[in-house]
Amino acid sequence: MSRFEPVIIGFLCNWCSYTGADLAGVARLQYPPNLRPIRVMCSGMVSPDLVMEAFLKGADGVMVMGCHPGECHYLEGNTKAAARARVITLVLDDIGINPDRFRLNWISSAEASVFAELVTEFTIRIQKLGPQQTRPQNSDTEPKHEMQNPKSGEKQRDLKNNVT
Ligand code: FES
Fold first, then answer.
1. Is the distance from CB of 1 to CB of 90 less than 8 angstroms?
2. Mean pLDDT of 73-77
3. Nearest Cα residue to 44 out of 22, 70, 75, 16
4. Cβ of 72 less than 6 Å from ligand 1
5. 138 domain residue, yes or no
6. Closest CA to 10 of 57, 55, 60, 64
7. How many domains does the chain divide into?
8. C-alpha 104 – ligand 1 centre gap (Å)
9. pTM for the full model?
10. Residue 136 pLDDT
11. pLDDT tens-digit readout, 11-24
12. From ligand 1's centre to the CA of 106, what distance in Å?
């Protein structure tokens, strides 16, 4: 049986963790290829909505990485991120997604090995948890009703569901 390869979305702050990830690549550090990095200008701009969207679109895990406390280029962005992380954890638990699938970490641009370790550790954690089960199936989330032109009464094509 093949090993479960999770999809992990990583929101990486441009000024620290993204550079740390880059350095890990340049230094040829080994870490699992499961992380899909998304560069953001600050961890504070990662709203709970973005994290939820990542999960609802099929992510098995989500990491947010920002500058160490006191080093945020926008002063309090990472403080905001920490507060949001607590909310995200509560919401995930509420909607039936294991909060262990989410993680917030501080990584400086020089901490390439820490980046590689965290990604490795988180990937193993998500592999143990298995695939994220609550992702909606398109067929179940979209309405499946026929649409009618209110003027002519003609049936219209429902483009989303590709039915007439
Ligand atoms: S600029 Fe990196 S966390 Fe704000």
1. no
2. 96
3. 75
4. yes
5. no
6. 64
7. 1
8. 12
9. 0.81
10. 54
11. 999 999 999 999 99
12. 9
Residues 6+ apart with CB under 8 A from 40: 11, 12, 13, 14, 46
In a domain, 156, yes or no: no
Q: Which atom of ligand 1 sits closest to the CA of residue 13?
A: 2
Ligand 1 atom with the shortest distance to the CA of 77: 4
Q: Is residue 144 part of a domain?
A: no
Q: What is the CATH number of the domain that holds 48?
A: 3.40.50
pLDDT of 87 above 70: yes
Q: Is the CB of 42 under 6 A from ligand 1?
A: yes
Domain encompassing residue 40? 8-133
Instruction: Tell me the mean pLDDT in the region 42-71.
Output: 96
Q: What's the chain's average pLDDT? A: 86
115 found inside a domain: yes
Distance 66 CA to ligand 1 centre (A): 5
